[in-house]
Write a structure and sequence with these properties.
Blueprint (H helix, E strand, L loop, with lengths): L2 H17 L4 H12 L3 E8 L4 E8 L3 H9 L8 H5 L7 E2 H4 L2 H5 L2 H7 L4 E12 L2 E10 L7 H24 L9 H5 L5 E5 L5 E4 L1 H9 L3 E4 L2 E4 L2 H14 L3 H4 L6 E4 L5 E8 L6 H6 L4 E7 L7 H9 L3 H13 L2 H8 L3 H15 L4 H14 L2
Length: about 375
């Protein structure tokens, strides 16, 4: 199958998973093969607590998944780097730390190498405070480490995985049967609108009608859905028109469209095409080409580690060493906790002292505590 055909079919499966979460495992299997690896996961990561929750995964040994959650997530040297990567930007191990240094960590020797895993390509889908939702494809030694072709294929998928994951989070449903799509979605708190290619409203749920009644961010003009902001209104019109062409036509537009209300309130809209896959039945029943979900945007308060890294231009590894020094103590303890050599810790710690102007470990503790108290 040609790449374009394979990609088109896969994108359709991804959007179906937004309404039927039970299909995510099959989607991840197809995604792993497309990108070039034996396994893939959708997961949520807490950078501060170094905790990990796998939402869906394919291809990994369940025993190692459990070991990761119980022990090795705290030893994973890539956690901080992946967490602070740009949204949707594919990131490999070598983008976070020197690859040779990675091979010397306990994490690789005890968790990655026994499985034959040598690398990952990871993308952040959403970040809020100290947590992030991520999509990752693992690379086996037979695949080699992540190269530009791997990243290129990952870029083709990430916007669509992000859209489906965000819509799935907005719905928070076990399953939405497509033949009772609109009735099922009446119960959700997000405003939902089924529209045709011109933006004409074919159905709105209870929250959608309430949003229109407030007239803060959306309005109806001649039966068509319109945004109060002119630029956003133009963007919506293009998205709705493209949605009629199917999953591939809508592309990356409307993944998370920011909307601003008349009162200054911020909203976010996600648009799901209804002209392909198992969603087609819902679209045909309501003569709609797309479903749009609108909710108020949650204020994204930066976490203390994020602010510290930005303020002092720390690399992901330097930040990990700084936080570890504050949490567990001296160089030997940090080396043990992070699974790296003491000489490596000393090197990164030297850079931290130089960049922050700190002279001793107590100064670093005060620095981190100061940022934490400012953020409440």
């Amino acid at each position: 199958m040609r790449e374009t055909e394979q990609l088109s079919a896969l994108i359709g499966n991804i959007y179906d998973a937004a309404l039927d979460p039970t299909s995510w495992v099959d989607v991840l299997e197809r995604a792993a093969r497309f990108v070039g690896g034996p396994a893939a996961s959708l997961y949520y990561k807490d950078a501060a607590r170094r905790a990990d929750l796998v939402a869906y995964q394919f291809g990994l040994n369940p025993r190692y998944v459990q070991l990761y959650a119980e022990k090795y997530v705290k030893l994973d040297p890539t956690t901080t780097g992946y967490f602070f990567a740009d949204i949707e930007q594919p990131t490999a191990t070598a983008d976070v730390m020197p690859y040779g240094e990675f091979l010397e960590t306990r994490f690789y020797k005890e968790w990655g190498r026994p499985q034959g895993l040598v690398d990952t390509v990871n993308a952040v889908l959403e970040r809020s405070g100290i947590t992030a939702a991520c999509f990752v494809v693992f690379r086996h030694e037979r695949d080699g480490i992540v190269d530009e072709e791997t990243k290129r294929r990952m870029r083709l998928l990430v916007p669509h995985v992000r859209r489906a994951a965000l819509i799935g989070k907005t719905l928070d449903l076990k399953k939405a049967e497509t033949d009772t799509f609109a009735d099922t979605l009446d119960a959700i708190s997000a405003g939902m609108f089924l529209v045709d290619a011109t933006g004409r409203i074919m159905h709105a749920n209870i929250a959608g009608h309430a949003t229109l009644a407030q007239a803060d961010v959306l309005r109806v003009i001649g039966g068509k859905l319109a945004a109060n902001d002119a630029d956003s209104d133009q963007a919506l019109a293009e998205i709705f028109a493209n949605a009629e062409g199917g999953d591939a036509a809508i592309g990356i537009k409307g993944v998370a469209l920011p909307l601003v209300g008349r009162t200054g309130n911020h909203y976010v809209a996600h648009v799901l095409p209804l002209t392909a896959g198992r969603r087609r039945r819902a679209g045909t029943a309501y003569r709609a080409s797309a479903a749009m979900f609108v909710r108020k945007a949650v204020l994204d308060v930066p976490s203390a580690p994020w602010v510290i890294a930005k303020a002092y231009k720390l690399t992901p590894t330097e930040l990990r060493v700084l936080l570890a020094v504050v949490e567990v103590g001296g160089v030997p303890e940090v080396a043990e906790a992070l699974g790296i050599a003491e000489t490596t810790v000393k090197t990164h710690l030297g850079h931290v002292y130089e960049k922050t102007g700190a002279k001793r470990q107590a100064d670093l503790v005060k620095l981190v505590a100061g940022f934490s108290s400012q953020l409440g």
